Amino acid sequence: MVQSTFAHLLAPLDLGFTQLKNRVVMGSMHTGLEEAKDGFAKMAEFYATRARGNVALIVTGGIAPNRAGWVAPFAARLSSKSQVNDHQLITSAVHESGGKIAMQILHAGRYGYHPLAVGPSRIRAPINKFTPWALSGKGVQKTIDDYVNCAVLAKEAGYDGVEIMGSEGYLINEFLVTHTNHRKDEWGGSFTNRMRFAEEIVKKTREAVGEKFIIIYRLSMLDLIPDGNLPEETAALAQAIEAAGATIINTGIGWHEVRIPTIAAKVPRAAFTWVTHQLRQAVNLPLMTSNRINNPYDAETVLARNDADLISMARPFLADPNFVRKTQENEIDAINTCIACNQACLDYVFQKKRATCMVNPFAAYETELVATPTKKTKKIAVVGAGPAGMACSLQAAKRGHQVTLFDQQSEIGGQFNLAKRIPGKQEFFETLRYFSHQLPKAGVNLQLNTAVDASMLLDGAFDHVVLATGITPRMLQIPGSSHPKAVTYIDVLQGKVVVGDKVAIIGAGGIGFDVAEFLSHADANHPSIEIKDFLAYWGIDPNNAVRGGVANIQPIDIPSKREIYLLQRKNEKLGARLGKTTGWIHRTELKRKKVRMFAGVEYQKIDDEGLHIVVDGKTQVLAVDHVVICAGQLPLKTLYEPLQGKVPVSLVGGAELALELDATRAIRQGTELALAL
User: Fold this and answer.
1) Domains in the chain, ordered, with CATH?
2) Can you name the residues that pair with 649 across neighbouring β-strands?
3) Which of 26, 227, 480, 563 has CB 3.0 to 4.6 Å from 502, enough for a Cys bridge?
4) At what angle do helices 84-96 and 137-156 cross, to 10 degrees?
5) How far apart are CA 419 and CA 664, in angstroms?
6) Within 10 Å of residue 186's Cβ, how many Cβ atoms?
7) What's CA 91's distance to the chain center, in Å?
8) d(CA 214, CA 206)
């Protein structure tokens, strides 16, 4: 698609007392820097980098207004003047970079993972082991005061505004629905009472900060819980929030405890903007929409059809801080697109690691990963154009080295060319598009269809050799492993094998789940390709006319036409090691497709009858047409020994350590090596 202008996306927005220079907002993301040593200095550069990329407004990660509102013990909060100076590091850096920034005030409510958590009622969240304390009447008033105090301190710290988090199942959202609010006082019962908490917070905040201060309210427009709000209640709340003094209303979709994907790659792009559009007739405030908008074309389309006034994108600004600038310069192919994998952002945060980005390891490491021009140009050979090789080649060439990138295949990508074939992982095409654009632009000499031997790399041809040759599948050491029924996952995903109607998959790691997804969808359209199909598949009312958008709506299953067995040796839940934020989606889909899963499996042999196994001490034969081996990988580094001692040589990615197609590690390692050469 060719588009020379983005008239709606790049148009300014007048808020009366201030103006946003375009319609793109960097949405709130927790990075882990909020609680890290020297974290505020690092966050200052993180946000300043995005401000220099011309985003109109930045919203920080959630900051608690009091201790009870912590997401976890000692999480970031702003409740006293002693904490203001830290925040001024951020606001000063952003303003010096020409940007605006709002601080999100987030009270975790019953999602707080600590014993001090509170809620409107004493009802434990299914994703938390701590039961919240029910706020007393005085506690409710004190909490409102704490929100206001937090906003006043944010203004003192130099923020241009605040976003009051009222969605995703956090405290304010908990007051709004009978799912979590069983109170009998003036804060419970009727919807008028239940929404008073949100209304009072916004009203009193506006009174305290004055008129010339942005107040964004993030409103849950689609709860996705059966006893969530009706659309008329959502409209009434929006009108009350407008009357209370909000500047902008942002869109929240789904509670965190809901088992419906809202931001993963399986969600179609811009899948929920229609929900924002429904609120257009209710209020006059600018509306912001969000969730799975990752490119300027879709963002422009959403605005052009009047779904919203502003686009909120969070993870796309991890992937590329210059998203807006590149759009303004019509360099769309130069945008490093967010692929919604969640692997290095949300999954890392749940592991208490610093968030970053699979496709952009510089994200949240701006003060530590610094690319500087080389002082001495080297001739560098990179063998293997997979994730590690592409990243290393690009960054080395950008620094001024002469880089030749070899690959024996006819296209770049390596294992990404397998990943892109998996239903729900089509976004990998975007990463390949990015590198296809960037490598030649940086001056990389790309040599495809080229099998490299050691002689090509010696005799002074290169000053340094990087082996990014990837992996080879580990074969199963059981009788019959060479039987025609036994095939590798690579052969299956590359279409070299026509897999039969009955198949066993050995190995239930990420690759095994991907192969099961691939085989279960091979003869049917993937349900998340079209928004209407996605909504039907997950049981979401496309008219949002029922409570929470899901009440009494049954999901539509699409069973697999194949009979599939997914097996693993470990005696633990299959998929236990998959990503925290996406693993449940993979497990749910395979169960709904009737994929049969077995743990604690002993493999005996493969023969004409099929796969012989022992489960729970009982021998059985799976009469399958094929057995797909997903039993791990081994590093492919046959060139390493012939080069050692003759030329400086480095191993990166799978060639150095073969792990479950760990592209995050591969890209980061390739990047770090390039910066050190």
Assistant:
1) 13-350 (3.20.20.70), 379-472+636-676 (3.40.50.720), 475-523+561-631 (3.50.50.60)
2) 465
3) 563
4) 50
5) 13
6) 13
7) 26
8) 9
Cα separation, 453 vs 607, whole angstroms: 38
- Spell 585-597 as b/e; 16+ CB within 10 A means b: bbbbbbebbebeb
- The answer to whether 205 and 163 are in contact (CB under 8 A) is no
Amino acid 581 reads T
> pLDDT band at residue 155, thresholds of 50, 70 and 90?
very high
Output the DSSP codes for 324-337: HHHHHTT-GGG---
Whole-angstrom Cα distance, residue 342 to residue 338?
Answer: 9
Instruction: Say how many C-beta atoms besides its own lie within 10 A of residue 641's C-beta.
Output: 10
Among candidate residues 39, 283, 247, 273, the one with its CA nearest the CA of residue 163: 247
Q: What is the pLDDT of residues 549-608, one digit of tens each?
A: 999 999 998 889 999 999 999 999 998 889 889 999 999 999 999 999 999 999 999 999
Q: State yes or no: is 170 an active-site residue.
A: yes
207 CB neighbour count, 10 Å cutoff = 11
Determine the Cα angle at 439 with ends 433 and 442, to 5°.
135
Which ranges in 399-498 belong to alpha helices (H)? 416-419, 428-441, 489-493
In this structure, the strands spanning 161-166 and 133-134 are unpaired
> In angstroms, how far is CA 72 from the centroid of its own chain?
21
262 residue type, one letter: T
pLDDT per residue over 646-659, tens digit each?
999 999 999 988 76
Which residue is it, tokens 């050190």?
676
Whether the per-residue pLDDT at 475 is higher than 90: the answer is no
Alpha-carbon Rg for the chain in angstroms: 26
Task: Determine the angle formed by the axes of helices 231-244 and 196-209, rounding to 10 degrees.
Answer: 20
- Enter the tokens of residue 21: 């220079």
Residue 111: both structure tokens together: 């999602």
What distance in Å separates the CA atoms of residue 163 and residue 312, rounded to the nearest whole number? 12
DSSP state of 287: E
Catalytic residue among 170, 217, 434, 489: 170
Stated as kind and residue range, the H or E segment containing 674 is helix 663-676
Q: How far apart are CA 348 and CA 329, in angstroms?
A: 33
Question: What are 453's two structure tokens?
Answer: 């031997």
